[in-house]
Specification:
Blueprint: H1 11-31, H2 38-45, H3 49-56, H4 59-71, H5 83-99, H6 101-112, H7 118-140, H8 148-165, H9 172-184
Helix pairs in contact: 1-2, 2-3, 3-4, 4-6, 4-7, 5-7, 5-8, 5-9, 7-8, 8-9
């Protein structure tokens, strides 16, 4: 069982998490990631190192937890008036954010400190939620829409693969092409 799944939401637990996450972000900016240690983070957060070890296990799991929170979208996707425009703009922004040096670092951290795969699932849920909003808007406009899994498989998955394993030459045109192909096939089986 992951240590994170045993954490109680709200109250003192939420305050400790917020304080520790804030300390990590501040220290990364001030001293750089390589200089981070659990005792340094604990001192900045006003907790004992044992609190961090008990809740997160080690520095990598803590960095992973912070990365997942940083990968959470801050707002719903913008409404551009059509499924195609909404999805193209979202995919372009997704690619831009995830392919940036910071985005790649967060992806790496999120996955490296994730012994049971919970963080990958949380990140996937963030993308699925954003896609669900886009598809819901399109449905309200009576547009023909693919299902969310199709968009994940045909847009998100290839973008993430390219970011992780073939990052050269990624541009908005790639995201737009993937969206176009996903929408062209929405009426066909398979």
């Amino acid at each position: 069982m992951s240590r994170k799944s045993m954490v109680r939401p709200g109250g003192r637990s939420a305050r400790v998490q917020a304080s520790v996450h804030s300390a990590v972000r501040e220290l990364e900016a001030e001293v750089g990631r390589p200089a981070l240690t659990v005792p340094l983070v604990a001192a900045r957060a006003g907790v004992t190192p044992s609190t961090i070890y008990r809740r997160w296990g080690d520095l990598q799991e803590l960095l992973s937890d912070v990365a997942v929170e940083r990968l959470r979208p801050e707002a719903p996707p913008e409404d551009h008036g059509s499924l195609s425009a909404d999805l193209r703009n979202w995919a372009e922004q997704f690619l831009d954010e995830m392919a940036s040096p910071g985005g790649r670092a967060y992806i790496r951290d999120a996955l490296l400190g994730d012994p049971d795969g919970d963080n990958a699932g949380r990140c996937s849920a963030y993308a699925a939620e954003q896609i669900g909003i886009i598809l819901g808007r399109a449905t309200e406009r009576d547009e023909d829409t693919p299902d969310a899994e199709t968009v994940i498989d045909r847009v998100v998955a290839p973008i993430m693969y390219r970011i992780l394993f073939r990052p050269d030459g990624l541009a908005a045109a790639y995201a737009h092409r993937l969206v176009g192909e996903a929408l062209e096939r929405r009426g066909t089986a398979g």
